[in-house]
Amino acid sequence: xxxxxxxxxxxxxxxxxxxxxxxxxxxxxxxxxxxxxxxxxxxxxxxxxxxxxxxxxxxxxxxxxxxxxxxxxxxxxxxxxxxxxxxxxxxxxxxxxxxxxxxxxxxxxxxxxxxxxxxxxxxxxxxxxxxxxxxxxxxxxxxxxxxxxxxxxxxxxxxxxxxxxxxxxxxxxxxxxxxxxxxxxxxxxxxxxxxxxxxxxxxxxxxxxxxxxxxxxxxxxxxxxxxxxxxxxxxxxxxxxxxxxxxxxxxxxxxxxxxxxxxxxxxxxxxxxxxxxxxxxxxxxxxxxxxxxxxxxxxxxxxxxxxxxxxxxxxxxxxxxxxxxxxxxxxxxxxxxxxxxxxxxxxxxxxxxxxxxxxxxxxxxxxxxxxxxxxxxxxxxxxxxxxxxxxxxxxxxxxxxxxxxxxxxxxxxxxxxxxxxxxxxxxxxxxxxxxxxxxxxxxxxxxxxxxxxxxxxxxxxxxxxxxxxxxxxxxxxxxxxxxxxxxxxxxxxxxxxxxxxxxxxxxxxxxxxxxxxxxxxxxxxxxxxxxxxxxxxxxxxxxxxxxxxxxxxxxxxxxxxxxxxxxxxxxxxxxxxxxxxxxxxxxxxxxxxxxxxxxxxxxxxxxxxxxxxxxxxxxxxxxxxxxxxxxxxxxxxxxxxxxxxxxxxxxxxxxxxxxxxxxxxxx
Amino acid sequence: xxxxxxxxxxxxxxxxxxxxxxxxxxxxxxxxxxxxxxxxxxxxxxxxxxxxxxxxxxxxxxxxxxxxxxxxxxxxxxxxxxxxxxxxxxxxxxxxxxxxxxxxxxxxxxxxxxxxxxxxxxxxxxxxxxxxxx
Lengths: 667, 134
Known about the structure:
Chain A is of the alpha+beta class.
């Protein structure tokens, strides 16, 4: 069985190489049959990778410890769902999983475009399959998931306990879907560059793919934050760890791209910039995979640990070199047909929003690779931690929040004073009033947080105003009742109003992040049974220790009675677990979440002899709004991804123009 | 062309702002990141400064007082030799144990003791269990 998996990967590599050669040859020679064979080869690659993944999954589920991967990342007592999740729990498996997602998306893209984008598709195939070749070559030659142990292990080493929870089951797949999704717009961008068909067809064709990738990147980031918050037990959700940055940077670039393509669609501008952004996004996803798997930055052992570093650097080098060369060659065709007329225009606002997003991405990148750079330049490793990222990204983030309010409502081309007054008077008043009210309520000290809340009020006001005016206009025009008018309004232009809903989600997340960063309360106390500690209005009484035991884990639970205003409101059980297989303790946080704050308890340590227990208590205000913001973003994306009739017509029209200009290939 | 130039100026403002933030951010928050061997060879030079040191917790060196949360251990190199005494007060990270690779951040004083403010263990995804090959 195992041999079948290894064989499938090798065949897939061969098929992928064929797909690339046939696609290029077919396009050059204008032979539809050859192009069709490259498409068939791409399908075959997908099928073979599915087989290989199935073989590995089967080996995991059957506890075949003769396989190194199975022995390293699972055990016979590991619950089944985590055994399945071990598929992406280790390096080899996660690269195979990447390949599976990539080739599956390639299949979808090919099916979708069977009868359209004739000119672009061969080069889309080329790009996607070249990426597949890279990952397949890694799994075949460098880090083989089907490597056997010389002597089968009797038992597996188990999956790292910190990865044994449900967030870890959905977070990596979601992030990988996002990463891999970015390769579709990239492939079309490359195809557009090669063929010189630089109109907006490639952008309209991939709009939904970009949104899809963005959607999963967003969810992936939030789930990762949620996982860190719930599992790592240090009281926060984001530590600017290289692995977190690895997921954050492509998200920023992808967000910038999503916005700037609108300018190209509407005004035929920023073609070059869009190409740069799609290239940047793709490169950052590869770089992100490299950071998570290659261990270049955070690990002490640097490159040597996995040996993957040089391959990733090499691939990134090729991608960047080819793209830059193409951009240079196509420079005349990428010139804008229009100019930006004024700062005070939607084009201007979008451009600044883009620069801010890229600026944040750059700062994050710089901070992440700073140790490597300083070592190369000065011969000594210098590192920056969370304070650096917070210091740099907070002001940039606030400027971005302001642009979220401005961008969607400012007029195209040039705003008049009247337009500005009409759109911004009420929001500015709302923002200023919020700021004054918060200062008046005695919320002084953290000015960044107050600025954030004021800007949040400003943005929300612009959005509410948009919905209100749109609904009123429909009511007047169509004589519809308010609710119907609102539904029709959104339905008529899902992309726009879906976007507004996403923005509401982003604002909620901003508020949650600002509040929990600025007003968090933290207390650490060593206690005896019966002791009480006061934290931010809560009285926490330690009642005693409970113990539990099963073959997989042993655990200790501290019973903490929570009272507020003299009334007992909850009993919480922060826990320490001891995973027997790996001889490793883990912390299980106890949390009580309300709209206002999370009470977050950690059992720091427990000494059996003296009976002393150390409790860490955190009060994190408004954290729930970050997750609610995430759900709102999900809803907004769903709204904006649903196609409208008008948009289908626009794509069909663009395609028709494109096909008319295309010489019909000989059969 | 004139308008374009104005736009480039606007974009430059953002670029300069980002550059300035990064520059001051690095200047104010960066710390040396040394392996234990590098640290040992220049410890007097970095005494009193914030520094981050990567090493391995030496076997049989860990003293942990659960009631005061005082921790003492020897941070050795990856061969398990040499090292510096480290003190720390606070809750231990779960992954912290003798023989594990850790990163300490704090200051070294001339009395020969490294006072750690933070103890870091590597991200869990980096812990790739070693499977005995024989």
